[in-house]
Amino acid sequence: MAQSDPYEALRYPEYRNFLGGALTLTMATQVQTLAVGWQVWQFTKDPLALGLIGLAEAVPFLGLTLVGGYVADRMDRRRLSLAAQALLLLGAVLLLWLSLGRGPGRAWPFYAIQALAGVARAFYRPASQALGTELVPVQIYQNASTWRSSSFQLAQVLGPALAGLVYSFSGATNAYLLETVMLVLALAAMVRIAPRPRRGALARTSLVKGLGEGVGFVFRHRLLLGSMSLDLFAVLFGGAVMMLPVFASEVLKVGPAGLGLLRTAPALGSLAMGFWLAHRPPRRRAGLVLLAGVAVFGLSWIGFALSWSFPLSMALLALSGAVDNVSVVLRNTLVQTHTPPDMMGRVQAVAGFFIGSSNEVGGFESGLAARLMGLVPSVVFGGCMTLGVVGVTAWRVPELGRMRRMEE
Questions:
Q1: What CA–CA distance (Å, rounded) separates 330 from 212?
Q2: Which residues contact 175 (CB under 8 A, 6 or more apart)?
Q3: Distance between CA atoms of 363 and 245, rounded to whole angstroms?
Q4: CA-CA distance, 288 to 404, in Å (whole number)?
Q5: Residue 88 has pLDDT above 90, yes or no
Q6: Rounded to 5 degrees, what are φ and ψ at 300?
Q7: Which of 121, 262, 323, 327 is the most buried (most CB within 10 A)?
Q8: What is the pTM of this model?
């Protein structure tokens, strides 16, 4: 068998521009998440207030993402991505404007701007995910997915680290200025990709019928439904990223710079795993690898909740990111290789409904659980729930565990 080229997707210039823009945009959103989270915690000292940041973004995202997928299958996905990026840029400018005054002193303006970001993501995610499949041949979708996941994780390494340092040494204004510049660069990268008009796709299909086709396709495909459900509930219960400001401030006592490092740790682990997967993709028992990765994800968060050591906490978060990336790459490959091109936007929107805001909704769940149960018990409980989700999925969708290659 001829050896695959681990850098094959990167040999397509437009895909390189696509990755560069996605990396810069993700870095910018990470800067916003860290700065907004730290400011809201300083205002309120309430873990539920941190959870509401995620909920404010998740509600409009979940309400509009299926519509975003329908639109992505009707119009030029590049143009739709550009419009959504412009909306994200508007939010960054508003945060910068707020920071130039004395600051709002309350949380609701931050919730409103996060809601604006949720609207933008509802259209950007399905459009950009579907656009990525138009830039490379179908034979290299897994390689392209691996590099996209790696670029995303690299952004999650650099973004929080830069945000923590900038915020610590020069305050919120310069953090939001950094975010604004990054979003301008992301727009510039997307502009360099050629337009891709859809030419009559879905022209005679109503919104309700078009959305029903996308949802029906996923629910008829047990492997897609099983993998999406697994990822949704694992992150919903198992991750507690929105609680990291509380751990940084009250448990580990490391301040905003330490918070930046904590947010970076999962991405470091994920980035390392991404390079490993690019060179050695799982070719046997990929479904079993997927289930095992999610189980280890839950265990790593249980260990993090019980840790009082900053280095150990960093290591456990890195482990959680590494195994999470295995799930992301395998699930994305499964979706891309089993979905017809003319339905890619709608199916990606359904995936986004399942997964795209699981971190934000999970953040609200974490904040509510932390208020009711206490910080550490709530995270331990979430990790145990993740292990339960793996068991139920393996039982209810046994063909997922038996799958050898995602392309089958």
A1: 25
A2: 31, 34, 35, 163, 166, 167
A3: 12
A4: 8
A5: yes
A6: -65, -35
A7: 121
A8: 0.68
Q: How many CA within 13 A on the CB side of residue 149?
A: 30
Exposure letters 113-141 (e unless 16+ CB within 10 A, then b)? bbbbbbbbbbbbbbbbbbbbbebbeeebb
309-316: list long-range contacts, CB under 8 Å, 24+ apart: 310/252, 310/254, 310/258, 313/247, 313/252, 313/262, 313/265, 314/261, 314/262, 314/265, 315/265
DSSP letter (8 states) at residue 284: S
Amino acid at 292: A
Q: Which residues contact 133 (CB under 8 A, 6 or more apart)?
A: 141, 336, 341, 344
Cα torsion 181, 193, 161, 112 to 10°: value is 60
C-beta of residue 301 within 8 angstroms of C-beta of residue 369: no
Q: Comparing C-alpha atoms, which of 249, 227, 254, 255 is closest to residue 339? A: 227
Three-state secondary structure of 377-401: HHHHHHHHHHHHHHHHHHHHCHHHH
How many whole angstroms from its chain centre is CA 280? 23
Cα-to-chain-centroid distance, residue 327: 12
Question: 9-402: which CATH topology?
Answer: Growth Hormone; Chain: A; (1.20.1250)
Mean pLDDT lowest for which of 2-6, 61-65, 115-119, 233-237? 2-6
At 117 the three-state DSSP class reads helix
Q: Which residues contact 119 (CB under 8 A, 6 or more apart)?
A: 60, 61, 64, 87
**Tokens found for residue 148:** 């996209």
Indicate whether 2 pLDDT > 50.
no
Residue 356's Cβ-side half-sphere holds a number of Cα atoms within 13 Å equal to: 32
What phi and psi, each to the nearest 5 degrees, are found at residue 197? Answer: -65, 150
Chain Cα centroid distance, residue 54: 12
Radius of gyration of the chain (CA): 20
d(CA 203, CA 210): 10
pLDDT at position 342: 76
Boundaries of every domain in the chain: 9-402
Q: Which amino acid is at 278?
A: A
CA nearest 189: which of 345, 89, 85, 271? 85
SS3 at position 335: helix
**Nearest C-alpha neighbor of 173 from the set 116, 90, 103, 259:** 103
- The pair of structure tokens assigned to 317 is 């978060």
- pLDDT tens-digit map of 121-179: 999 988 998 888 888 887 888 788 888 877 887 887 788 788 888 888 888 889 999 99
Place of tokens 């509380």: 246
